[in-house]
Amino acid sequence: MGPPPGSKRSPSMKRSSTTPTSIRSLEHDTLCIIFSYLGLFDVVRSSAVCKFWNGIIKRSKLLQLLYLKQQRRSSRSSFSEESLNVYLEELAIEHQRQSLVRGSLHIDQWKGHSLGVDQCRMKRGLVLTGVGDKVMRLWSLERYRCIEEYSIPDGVPLVDFDFDESKIVGLVGTQICIWRRNGQRSIFPPREGQFIKGSCMRYFDPEAVVGCEDGTARVFDMYSKKCSRIVRMHTEPVTCLSLSEDQLIISGSSLGRITVSGLSSDQRVATLRPTDSTGIKSLCFNPASHHVFAGTTAGYASCWDLRTMRQLWKTRVSPNVVYSSQHMRCDTSTLVVGGIDGVLRVLDQNTGEILTSYVMDHGTSSSSGCTHGVIERKIGKRIPHDYNIDRIPKTARPPITCLAVGMQKVITTHNSKNIRMWKFNNLRDLN
């Protein structure tokens, strides 16, 4: 009996019903031979393509053999999954650093919104963009395809947002709003969800934290839809937030103060940075190193160690505001920052040294199509740290209002209709 009218049989169904065992065995043997010619990093990436490839790589123990080869051990050497995982993480971090610092770069740009978009979040190959018009869009990065769209309630602005596998959480006007990935939308009851004007929000399941203009951080439970705590962070407005996995709220203020408080209490734990003449515009926390990174209105980037509550470095990275600073998850090597001057800069997380800086080459481009129109491809240009950026047309370096970092890629928004994907190719053979 065939499939129902109008339905399509999946590739896996076709293989199981029509492909003889001998042919599947041939596919297995052929792929084993192909995979054996790859380096360790490429085999890891191949294992993430599909379950069939993952199964072949696991059964053939290719990762174990390549790991032992890399370590110059014999096949009788000791091996553990933990040591392999540590090595693969180190390899990924080094691969990322080499790509961002020494790799070639091209930039894909497409029109993502009808009005200006200035916020983006990236997780698992998906990017959520919004703030500017009345819609948020979820994009697949494979072909820049918009796969889901979420409308904003009428009459209220979208201030900030975040997402996970099942939902989008947004700060809308003076309320928290949840969009389920199945299309349902719910707004917290006004009595529980309404507060003094919020300027930023961060979400870490099951709680969302809103930074408010009265200097408080308000903690909301996603399931009870109630405000569970109000934490006094500053006497001045909260401008940015970051959350740690060990229940800490890190907040920056308009007067340049950075404070740390516990999610489970309403008491401030520590002050990392006292009042300063420059306000804090961006914060991010790295759980792998316990480092907090901040960007200021005067163009400084700084780093603190939460274990000692001490500042590790401070670097003037831009002549103007640093709007966003991010790193790839678990990466303890590089930090990417962007701001009002439109230059994308890569820093060393441990020293604050500017490793390299990029802008878009205004004179070269090609184009292709996507679901939202035309993708314009341009070449990225590496510039010296002391280069006079006023010589670069502002059309090639619009302000970077937000950025998100993934493996060998950075997504940026610019308070315009366009979204940019910066793609880095690693020129160094790590294998």
From TrEMBL:
Disordered, as annotated region: 1-21
Matching SMART domains: FBOX, WD40
Segments of skewed composition (Polar residues): 9-21
Keyword vocabulary terms for this entry: Repeat, WD repeat
Source organism, top-level taxon: Eukaryota
Domain F-box: from-to ranges: 20-66
Record carries keyword Repeat: yes
InterPro entries: F-box-like_dom_sf, F-box_dom, FBXW2, WD40/YVTN_repeat-like_dom_sf, WD40_repeat_dom_sf, WD40_rpt
Alphabetical list of Pfam families matching this protein: F-box
Name by which UniProt lists this protein: F-BOX DOMAIN CONTAINING PROTEIN EXPRESSED
Source organism per UniProt: Salix koriyanagi
